[in-house]
């Protein structure tokens, strides 16, 4: 192993692979002195603590290395069309505080983001922590995200958000890096975090007002060439022929199977529903029309997913989003068409699961996004580099 840095060593400690200096040396092949330099730097930065193991027998027990999850915080903002959810997490992803905000559908960034920032500030205050403790901020939004510009990209759904940089809104709260991701990809990251050792190839479906998919291949979340991979809601579907879609086109899967289409259909049948969550509540109360609508949405999604399953051969399909509380109905429909239309090989032993963190999947994944950024070996090395470069700078000497 060449060029093993302190950041790599932290990764080994976080993963639980290395629990002592001796184990770091064994896993990396580094000399004792080289291990000491890296571990000491991590201890000095409060990212790793060394504790005395309970002694067994004679001799000096080896000190145990532990990741200091309380050394900093990440903030997560999962922004949807009608609701935004927020969490403050420690560096192990444990939620210290959570809040949410209902908003009018389709508001622009100038309305939504300042409110998001003030909610996060209030949340920090509530958990008794300081903005200076924040090391990273994750933000998820519906639609395609331009990862370089940190903006929404060609989104017919998020009107007014296209090309508007999101990070500057958070600058008044913290100077920490802001990472932007698509909402379904954020759920995929939460699942990757939960199942990484079990599933390396997965399709994650978000069934909410809109429909989206996240693709994990070989353990890596796939964004595609333009960041637009997984836009399953606007795949053309035979059963939606000529039905207008909110993207401006017609014939999309969403036009018959998206939450907004279910709201449209149930309203036409005399039900009082404003949001797909109302449709789900009705279905769970036993309303036959709502139950049929969700099952039929599942059938349409399954028919389109069958092609994706045949192409990608995933080990698991995970279903999340606002329709997930009606998982049994939705997935009963989905299985009917999926197993009918996918090839036998790809559908064999294919698991279908509900999103691990339910309604919290969005914030969970958005926190994972921020944690991946701030705890990546490179980011850690950069932080340590700064500390080492200016250990007694005049500005800090008196602090
Ligand atoms: Zn469409």
TrEMBL record:
InterPro entries, per database record: ATPase_NBD, ROK, WH-like_DNA-bd_sf, WH_DNA-bd_sf
SUPFAM superfamilies (UniProt xref): Actin-like ATPase domain, Winged helix' DNA-binding domain
Pfam families reported in the protein's UniProt record: ROK
PANTHER family, sorted: GLUCOKINASE (PTHR18964:SF173), ROK (REPRESSOR, ORF, KINASE) FAMILY (PTHR18964)
Family of the protein in this entry: Belongs to the ROK (NagC/XylR) family.
Protein name: ROK family transcriptional regulator
Organism (species): Kineosporia mesophila
């Amino acid at each position: 192993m060449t060029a093993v840095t302190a950041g790599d060593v932290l990764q080994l400690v976080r993963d639980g692979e290395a629990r002592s200096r001796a184990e770091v040396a064994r896993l990396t092949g580094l000399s004792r002195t080289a291990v000491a330099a890296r571990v000491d730097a991590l201890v000095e930065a409060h990212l790793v603590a060394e504790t005395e193991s309970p002694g067994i027998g004679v001799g000096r027990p080896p000190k145990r290395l532990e990741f200091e999850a309380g050394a900093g915080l990440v903030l997560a903002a999962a922004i949807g069309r009608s609701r935004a959810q927020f969490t403050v997490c420690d560096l192990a992803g444990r939620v210290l505080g959570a809040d949410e905000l209902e908003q009018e559908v389709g508001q622009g960034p100038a309305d939504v983001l300042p409110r998001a920032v003030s909610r996060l500030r209030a949340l920090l205050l509530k958990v008794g922590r300081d903005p200076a403790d924040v090391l990273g901020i994750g933000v998820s939004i519906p639609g395609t995200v331009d990862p370089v510009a940190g903006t929404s990209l060609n989104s017919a759904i998020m009107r007014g958000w296209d090309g508007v940089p999101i990070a500057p809104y958070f600058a008044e709260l913290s100077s920490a890096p802001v990472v932007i991701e698509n909402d379904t990809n954020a759920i995929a990251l939460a699942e990757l975090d939960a199942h990484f050792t079990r599933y390396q190839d997965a399709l994650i479906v978000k069934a909410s007002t809109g429909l989206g998919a996240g693709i994990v291949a070989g353990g890596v979340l796939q964004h595609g060439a333009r960041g637009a991979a997984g836009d399953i809601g606007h795949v053309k579907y035979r059963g939606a022929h000529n039905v207008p879609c909110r993207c401006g086109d017609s014939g999309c899967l969403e036009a018959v199977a998206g939450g907004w289409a279910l709201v449209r259909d149930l309203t036409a049948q005399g039900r009082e529903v404003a949001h797909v969550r109302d449709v789900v509540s009705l279905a769970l109360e036993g309303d036959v029309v709502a139950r049929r609508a969700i099952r039929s949405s599942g059938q349409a999604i399954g028919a389109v997913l069958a092609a994706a399953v045949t192409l990608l051969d995933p080990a698991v399909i995970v279903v999340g989003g606002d329709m997930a509380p009606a998982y049994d109905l939705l997935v009963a429909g989905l299985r009917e068409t999926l197993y009918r239309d996918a090839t036998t090989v790809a559908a064999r032993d294919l698991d279908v699961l509900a999103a691990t963190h339910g309604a919290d999947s969005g914030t969970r994944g958005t926190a994972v996004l921020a944690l991946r950024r701030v705890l990546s070996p490179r980011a850690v090395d950069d932080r340590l580099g700064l500390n080492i470069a200016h250990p007694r700078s005049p500005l800090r000497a008196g602090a």
